Amino acid sequence: MAGANISGDLKNPSTAIPKGTLLAILTTTIIYLVSLWITGATCVRDAHGLTQNIINAANDSGILASINCTTDWDNGDCEYGLMNFFRVMEDESAFGPLIQAGIFAATLSSALASLVSAPKIFQAVCRDNLLPKIHVFGKGYGTQDEPRRAYILVFVITMAVICIGDLNVIAPIISNFFLGTYALINYASFDASFARSPGWRPTFKYYNQWVSLFGGALCIVVMFVMSWWTALITAFVFVALFVYILHRKPEANWGSSMQANNYRSTLLAMLKLTNSEDHVKNYRPQVLVMTGNPAARAALVDFAYNITKGRSLMVCGHIVPYDVSDRVFFCLSKLEKLFTKWLENRKVKAFYNPIANATLSSGTDILLQMSGLGKLKPNVLLMGFKGNWNANKLEGLDDINEYFKAIRDAFDSNVGVAVLRNGNGDGLDYSEMLKENNLGYPTMDGLLELLESHAPLGQGLFSASVGNLSNITPTPSPNWSSAALNKLDDSSNRNSKVFDFDSNGARNTLSPPGITTVSSISQRKMTASQRELTATIDRYRTKVKNAVIDVWWLYDDGGLTLFIPHLLTLEKSYLQGAKIRVFTIASSHSTMEQERLNMVELLKKFRIQFMEVFVIPDMSKKPSDSLIKEFDDIVAPFRSTETDSREGMISDSELAAQKNRTDRHLRLRELMLQNSSQAELVV
């Protein structure tokens, strides 16, 4: 251990440590065995030390029987012998002072080894921030990075232990801690080998994982044989430290065998899952959420997580609308690290998957095909409603076509499609409103042009002043120029802190509870508009009491229309405990009751809790003239002409052919406004 603890100071530790350790063990073992044989052959176990008794016993006087050290060794009269007298070696030796000199030499060598190695280990612990408020001892001095502060601390602790004044009291405790350490090291070696990690490559040719396991078990046995109560104390301290560090989740990454075991068990579990047969009872909605920049659409992320709750797959898809290049790949790798941390800070158990593609539809298709692995692949596509679809009239026709094509391709891929429309009419991208309200908008350190509106990254994403990723407020920009890419590339070469952030952070508009930020903006008292915007963004994180979910079951679409609302009523959802109302249609008044009974039977069959079932009899009724006129006004800019008939425009013949379907949907809108305007969610 002395060599392992200072392995960083050795020229060739892989050679020096095995040779030095084995030679030291061999030498000391021979010395200990010779000493044991000599003392065992020349000394009795217990003796009272009275020479006259031995003489009398030799003369058959019988006086020795009055003090029998064989049976009465614990009565306090037998103070000598191998078990009781600690200076036996000095009495056995030819020259007593030589033994004392050896004891001093052994003590000094052990003390120096511990004094050199222990502070260095403690320095590493301090730098990893494993325990609170100990980072001051991690400071190093000089070219060798000497831990002088840790030296002082070790000296103080050592003097405190020495002041106890009784080595026999200290020895069992110290020995048990050493044995506990050796047991953990042996088990760690075994565990690393058992995990089959390719990074674990011991160079000692006689190494065997089962010998390590046996050595660890032997250390534990010796701990309890030596002193069972100190062994329990040692075990308690080790377990308490392990649980604390596991709960604290330090930022340090040691490449531990736990990571290797997690990888191996996950891989085996996924292979086992892939080879298993699907069953409807085990169906889980595995959601691909088209978030773009997740920080800009935190509400969409939160809503999707209310469905998955960390119990099924959730992937946040981000299409970076640029052709593939080295610089784009560099950006994607940075984004993946940043937003993975952002999701962790927001307590969302999901994956972030960015891809580079020039179009929304093609990017969505790639995400549907490539996201996931084996059976862990998305089977539901969740998108935000394109609320501004008609804002730019014909100038935005290409965007509308891309949006529609993405939905159509999802259906062609045989996955469920869900579109979330925010009821407040503001949409789901709050980046502009956050900027206008001066909420969590950090200053720029250079990169001013990044990504387009349907996949925005924004300025704040790359600021060195960002407190944490929950504080990102992206701003759409017209183009990601080559100049911006050059800045991005140059910043990486200069080891710039463009992408740095403090994961400890502070609470702000996009943060989960308990996350704080150092941003000066978040420290100010928020205005009424800022508080309102914050509440709007976090609406899907705030539980709604006595909520109602309205499900419009117009036709059998596979059951997702009922299953998603059911999941939203379960625990850990903002609609936990909500009541489900089901609306269905009947072809005539005479079949209303039968349709209602059929729907009730279906809900009971699938064990879906519901409050009430309503049957709509007049679905075929013509919508109001005002609604028809409103529809005509909306589609008027998109009517095709003889000179302009681009893809996505509507011809007169198409309007006539789809008139009945159009009237049906307009009538459905009227019925929803009439019956479900007060519901928290309409499906």
Automatic annotation (TrEMBL):
Its main location: membrane. Keywords: Membrane, Transmembrane, Transmembrane helix. It is found in: Membrane. One of its GO terms (molecular function) is sodium:potassium:chloride symporter activity. It comes from Plectus sambesii. This is Solute carrier family 12 member 2. The chain crosses the membrane at residues 20-38, 150-174, 213-246. GO terms for cellular component: membrane. GO terms for biological process: cell volume homeostasis; chloride ion homeostasis; potassium ion homeostasis; potassium ion import across plasma membrane; sodium ion homeostasis. Residues 297-683 form the SLC12A transporter C-terminal domain. It holds the Pfam family AA_permease. InterPro entries: AA-permease/SLC12A_dom, SLC12_C, SLC12A_fam. It is a multi-pass membrane protein. The keyword Transmembrane helix applies. The keyword Cytoplasm does not apply. Residues 2-288 form the Amino acid permease/ SLC12A domain.
